[in-house]
Hints:
44% of the residues lie in helices and 0% in strands.
Amino acid sequence: MKRVYKITLLFGITILVASCHSNLEPNYQYFPNMYESVGYETYSESKAFNNGKEGQLPVTGTVNRGFEVYEYENSTAGYELAKANLKSPLDSIGRNSEEGKALFEIYCISCHGASGNGKGKLVEREKFLGVPSYKDRVITEGSVFHVVTFGLNSMGSHANQLNAHERWLVSDYVLKLKSQL
């Protein structure tokens, strides 16, 4: 008899639960915004994000971490000033020729060649033409640093790949190559 009561009770609970649940008419939701929030497209033009570019722009007055001010402008006059006045901050201990050579081999050798003669692999394959030899140029450590920082003619800037210390190492190595030509 107890089994009949238990089975009847379970059957009654199952029917009661099944009759209350309907996929067409879901139960009440309390605080529905928590379950179905309003989606904002982050960089779209909406009232939440004024012009759609706020998340992309840096705050005014901020400076990139590790940024060092370079006082010469990207122009011919800035190049000439850097050539005449800019000196390397590296002392004799800081002038690591091996590190400068390694950086030169990564970033410069493909165009300028191993000896700085302007006959790198890309020039030999005629991908770039007119890469000058260091022997033909009047260059100083300041002019090399300026060109590596801003680029010149078809050479692009390497300021994003090399920090200021590494650019000075490359400049020092370029002058070493020039003295050997």
